[in-house]
Specification:
single chain, 348 residues, alpha/beta, Rossmann fold, Dihydrodipicolinate Reductase, domain 2, eight-stranded mixed β-sheet, seven-stranded mixed β-sheet, 11 helices, globular
């Protein structure tokens, strides 16, 4: 499959590098309006352009990966879909529920495959959890608890991550959107949601530093999510998936999956089985966390190409991206909104 990549920032660079290593994928063009970034891509041997028109008007491009700031996603996705391209868009799908719904609707009108870039689905620990559940190791899923956090200070990431006009919110739209997707991935579609936000630590205007969401499905399964910018130990996430026959916990870092089987008696401890991924630890030691990210991107690209070909996959759809944004806004609905309402639908 022939790809164009829109945006050559930090994540775009990961995407470009991993596309080069994805069997069956060809990166034909990188679109980057910033001259310095475009020149950096050219030095690495990539064909570049300053405008999306070069990609959208080309018959040599089948799909577009949108790797631009979230406030630009709707405009870029709609343009690519209208031009007849399949689209894989980085998370979050959009900065508002309204914009996410518009992107999903545009994909349906175009008859193209829309994916949302939730690469955590392809971490080995998550894949192992899916495998264990499919094997019936924990019975029927009953509830899911998730957490994702990092220190959240202004030096931690791009300054625009703390700008609600770009992100649409704070921790829930940043690191929290990954575990929002994973929670829904294992829990299923929710029918009831509620939440709260806190902004007492960093006081970034309009961006929560802690967000909490409680959700329930029509069948009665319950999910609990906490996204934080006050995890002083550094970046980490974990997920507990509890069923009628046991619990699975997923950690990162380090990459680990643990299975506890339901005990025979209430006073007994469950039998534990630990799944380690030693090659991941070794590669991360040698090549940093970049190796893990790129490997997950490669798996995501392969899965996406399968879905474009009409075969099933584990990757996140456009609807999945919409539901993750809806979870964040469940917390915003009872609090001061992270961005002014008039921003919805606007692009720059």
């Amino acid at each position: 499959m022939r790809f164009a990549l829109i945006g050559f920032g930090a994540i775009g660079q990961f995407r470009a590098s991993s596309l080069k290593r994805t069997a069956g994928a060809e990166l034909k063009l990188i679109v980057e309006p910033v001259a310095e970034k475009r020149e950096a891509a050219q030095k690495l041997g990539y064909q570049t352009a300053a405008s999306m028109d070069a990609a959208l008007g080309s018959k040599e491009i089948d799909a577009v990966i949108i790797s631009t700031p979230p406030n630009l996603h709707r405009a870029h996705c709609e343009a690519a879909l209208a031009a007849g391209k399949h689209v894989l868009c980085e998370k979050p799908l959009a900065t508002t529920v309204e914009d996410a719904k518009a992107i999903v609707a545009a994909a349906k009108r175009a008859g193209k495959v829309l994916g949302t870039g939730y690469n955590y689905r392809f971490y080995p620990a998550i894949a192992k959890a899916r495998e264990l559940i499919a094997q019936g190791e924990i019975g029927e899923v009953d509830h899911v608890k998730s957490f994702a956090g990092h220190p959240g200070g202004p030096e931690f990431t791009h300054p625009w991550v703390h700008d609600p006009k770009v992100m649409g919110g704070g921790a829930l739209m940043d690191n929290g959107t990954h575990v929002a997707d994973l929670t829904l991935h294992f829990l299923g579609k929710t029918t009831e949601t509620a939440g709260f936000t806190g902004n007492r630590i960093w006081n970034f205007g309009g961006s929560e530093d802690n967000g909490y969401v409680l959700m329930r499905t029509a069948e009665g399964r319950v999910g609990m999510l906490h996204a934080s910018w006050s995890e002083w130990r550094g970046y980490r996430f974990h997920l507990d998936i509890t069923g009628t026959g046991g619990t699975i916990r997923v950690w990162y870092p380090p990459m680990m999956t643990v299975l506890w089987k339901k005990p025979e008696g209430a006073a007994k401890s469950g039998r534990r089985q630990i799944f380690l991924f030693p090659m991941m630890q070794i590669k991360e030691r040698l090549k940093s966390y970049r190796w893990t990210v790129e490997e997950s991107f490669i798996a995501e690209h392969l899965d996406y190409m399968e879905r474009v070909a009409g075969r099933p996959g584990a990757g996140a759809t456009g609807e999945d991206g919409l539901h993750a944004v809806e979870l964040a806004y469940a917390a915003y609905s009872g609090n001061e909104r992270p961005a002014e309402p008039e921003l919805a639908g606007q692009h720059r």
